[in-house]
Amino acid sequence: MKCERQSMKSICTSRRKPPPCSVACIRGIDQLTMAMADIERLLSPESRSAIETRLRPPRGGDFGWMIERHAHLALSTRPSLGSEAHAAAAVARFMKAMQSNTQRIACWVAEQAGSARIGTAVLMAETETQARIELLFVEPSARRRGLGAQLVAACANFAHGAGYEEVLCHLSQVHEDLCGLFMNAGFTPVQ
Question: What is the rounded radius of gyration, in angstroms, for the C-alpha atoms of the chain?
Answer without folding.
Answer: 21
